[in-house]
Write a structure and sequence with these properties.
By secondary structure, the protein is of the alpha/beta class. The protein has a single domain, classed as 3-Layer(aba) Sandwich (Rossmann fold). About 25% of the residues lie in helices and about 15% in strands. It has a 7-stranded mixed β-sheet with strand order 1-3-4-2-5-6-7, with helices on both faces. The chain is globular, with a radius of gyration of 17 Å. It starts with about 35 loop residues before the first strand and ends in a 25-residue tail after the last helix.
């Protein structure tokens, strides 16, 4: 199966979730995220209007934990020790006309091949044709980043003219200097030059402000950035399972 192209802060990572911090920014609609439905067929997708942002990543990079941190909901996305639990496109409503989309994790060998093949047409159609899709958040584990699956997804997204913002998650597992050096190394890779990238930790809150600001710009591209109180908005890619 493949695609064919056309929780508290600690240490040095003390950003946390303190909304009394005058320098913090939160895109308020993310706090109002509510599960809507799970999609296994293109015909089940909601009407293609408004705006939505999708979250992708290979198995075991912390994608579900990232979604929970982003929305400040401990169990909005199930965090499982067993990769392969996210086996559909999960849709979450924010404010009217705004959606957050959790894509199936990929690259987990134990997910049955038939299931991986069934995801292919759905994900290809979603990424290629979805008019309301404003951008793609790609979660990587900074300790094992930019796998072949990640490279294929970035190439596919570029072929579909989809902007990608890379989260180098689990940066709290490295020293600050080592994390910065790893991001600098990745930015020197030709295929990643020009791709937005940041350090992140779904456990400590590192980079949460920057991520909220990126998503707010996608949802409200023609508006001035709102204050926290005002915020209202041809490669092959094999899919597998999800784990955080």
């Amino acid at each position: 199966m493949g695609f064919r192209l056309p929780d508290k802060a600690h240490g040095d990572y003390a950003l946390g979730m303190d909304h009394t911090n005058p320098n913090s920014f939160r895109f308020a609609p993310l706090r109002r995220a509510a599960y809507r439905l799970s999609v296994t067929q293109p015909s089940q997708l909601p009407a293609d209007d408004g705006a939505e942002v999708a979250i992708a990543g290979r198995s075991n990079v912390g994608k579900s934990s990232t979604l929970n941190m982003l929305t400040e909901r401990r169990a909005l996305a199930r965090v499982s020790r067993t990769p392969g639990r996210t086996q559909a496109i999960n849709i979450f409503d924010l404010d009217p006309g705004q959606r957050l989309v959790d894509l199936p994790g990929y690259g987990y060998a134990k997910v049955p091949e038939a299931l991986r093949r069934s995801w292919g047409p759905l994900l290809e159609q979603y990424l290629r044709r979805r008019g309301s899709l404003r951008g793609l958040i790609l979660v990587m584990d900074i300790r094992h980043p930019y796998t072949a699956h990640d490279a294929d997804l970035i190439a596919f997204a570029e072929g579909c003219n989809r902007p990608v913002h890379v989260l180098l998650n689990k940066a709290d597992k490295l020293s600050r200097g080592a994390a910065i050096q790893e991001m600098a190394r990745l930015r020197r890779i030709p295929e990643l030059q020009g791709v937005d990238m940041q350090l992140f930790s779904a456990q400590s809150g590192l980079g949460i402000d920057e991520l909220h600001e990126r998503i707010a710009r996608w949802f409200t591209p023609d508006s001035e950035k709102e204050t926290p109180a005002e915020a209202g908005a041809n490669s092959e890619f094999s899919k597998g399972g999800e784990n955080s």
